[in-house]
Specification:
Length: about 260
């Protein structure tokens, strides 16, 4: 417990620091882009330097997207938890998942009709599913299968989530499985840390699983990673089952940020 607390404090400190840097950096990018615009209009359209300006513009735009993601991560609004029907949420998010994974990857949805309701911020859960699907896509550059399933938890779902105090039948499992490259032990030990990424500069931010972790914790849930190199990966989320009537699923108030390619 002591370790977990220290870990949480460390994450919070890193988050605050990153938020501050991202904020200042965003202001600098604003100045760069503003002056670029001025320079572009000051020069004739076919001036050879226009090409250099366009390259600067491209890099600054990528920088702004990165700081945007950082700020969104660090300045997380308090979750707006509701009683949610996860089956309806999964069906609603499926078209976004399809758009994200492209044509080489096949999406399979397994939705048990009697899984039950959960209490979560629906926007956060949608975002988490998109983050998990983006990781699955990146792990399957040659294509494969992405399976998203929903069911009432069973005794076999316990594993590392056994700290969840409720019985399996009082939990709901949402699982995201890919047939991709899998992860070694080092990666599995570090993947929830903010900024931990194996994807190389400009490709990964290392914020995807850190924010999935935050979302699951806020909903009093648990998360398990089942993965081995070359065998694919399953990310299993479990949430306490809620006895309320689910609220009708409206379209997302906040637009989902589709993770970058
Ligand atoms: P990012 O995707 O920006 O790298 P994440 O926090 O989402 O950040 O993931 C951290 C790391 O965990 C990834 O860089 C990758 O090494 C590993 N990872 C996450 N999901 C998967 C997956 N489905 N298959 C293989 N590796 C994964």
């Amino acid at each position: 417990l002591q370790d977990q607390l220290r870990e949480a404090q460390k994450m919070e400190a890193v988050g605050r620091l990153a938020g501050g840097v991202a904020h200042d950096f965003n202001n600098l990018l604003g100045a760069i882009m503003g002056n670029l615009g001025l320079a572009e209009t000051a020069l004739p359209e076919n001036h050879p330097v226009q090409k250099d300006l366009a390259r600067i513009q491209g890099a600054a735009t990528r920088g702004a997207a990165l700081t945007g993601r950082l700020l969104a991560f660090c300045r997380r609004e308090a979750p707006e938890s509701k009683v949610v029907d996860p089956a309806a949420l999964l069906r609603g998010v499926a078209p976004l998942l399809l758009g994200l994974i492209g044509e080489r990857i096949q999406l399979q949805l397994h939705i048990a009709p009697d899984a039950g309701a959960i209490t979560v911020d629906p926007n956060d859960l949608e975002q988490a599913l998109l983050n998990l699907a983006a990781n699955a896509r990146d792990a399957m550059p040659e294509g494969g299968f992405l399976t998203v399933s929903l069911r009432r938890s069973t005794a076999e779902d316990a594993s590392a989530s056994s700290h969840l105090s409720t019985a399996a039948s009082d939990r709901v499992t949402i699982e995201v499985t890919d047939t991709g490259q899998g992860m070694d032990e080092f990666t599995q030990a570090h993947l929830f840390e903010p900024f931990f990424t194996t994807k190389g500069p400009g490709r990964g931010t290392g914020l995807g699983l850190a924010s999935v972790y935050g979302m699951v914790k806020a909903a009093h849930g648990g998360i398990d990673i089942l993965s081995s190199p070359g065998q694919g990966t399953t990310i299993r989320l479990q949430f306490p089952r809620t006895q309320g009537q689910p609220e009708p699923q409206e379209t997302s108030a906040r637009p989902a940020r589709v993770p970058g390619t």
